[in-house]
Amino acid sequence: MAKILVIGAGGQLGTELTKVLAETYGNEAVIATDFHESVKNKFGYCTFHTLNVMDKAALADIVEKEGVTQVYHLAAILSALGEKNPVPAWDLNMGGLLNVLEVARAFAIDKVFWPSSIAVFGPNSPKDQTPQQAFKDPNTVYGISKLAGEHWCEYYFNKYGVDVRSLRYPGLIGYKSLPGGGTTDYAVDIYHKALNEEKFTCFLSADTYLPMMYMEDAIQATIQLMNAPKENITIRTSYNLSGMRFSPQEIYQSLLPYFPNFTIEYVSDFRQQIADSWPNSIDDSAAQHDWNWKPAFDLNAMTATIVDNLPSYFNYNKHK
Ligand code: AKB
After folding, report:
1. Which of 41, 77, 119, 253 keeps 20 to 30 A from 209, CA to CA?
2. What domains lie within the chain, and their CATH numbers?
């Protein structure tokens, strides 16, 4: 039986991915871990351990005692928070990954998943339909750590045969957890403000286009990649992955049919420069070719789903 360890399970992606893994493989197959013990109550359905991924001995201990066969390593400091704490961001993003890769090698773990990001691209990468192999000059600590991490993943695969698989996620948008220090997080926050009938102050300009993806698609892509036959995986750094692209003005407009009085103002801050260094859209033809990737959600489908589900999830009043 597979034993799946999720590291950083309490975050935006982990909260939803861990649940889907438990539904797919059985609650007893999943071990959720997080640095923050306070998230434990999200994981009543499976085993939970508090774990700091920087503690390699503690990680190895869980892997050994639980008989772990697969690891999803999601713990990271994202782009905006990373710019405020560059050295801790580098330490966690790199040190955590290297601990996971080393433990995976030592215990002959079957498969490892590690998320990369569109942040690996930089101001001199092509902006539109950015190709898989495009020039990369990331200018955030987060992006630099993701680009270095991609090469570490490829190195461990080539040198030690660790079957590590990775996706360059666009901005991920879901309604089951709050924003977590990313530049694309305005697109999570905007739904909360609309539902609470508050004015939204956007930290990016109206026409800043970024690649984005609804969480359900991101989880689908992750599971599809992890289930793909090994011989189909031709990219051992990280796959470009595309869902949709939109600007703050467009997501605002998608909300107006539900909240006609909702208002927005644009006050750019340091995150504008980060967003401006990233692609507007992504070419994911390798993912389509290698493991049949196809997203299901566009902007309007995502907004309809979130407006429908977020109020009861967060105990907000249903829109009036
Ligand atoms: C961020 O904004 O930092 C992340 C990402 C694009 O990787 N959501």
Report:
1. 77
2. 4-170+214-240 (3.40.50.720), 173-211+244-282+297-314 (3.90.25)
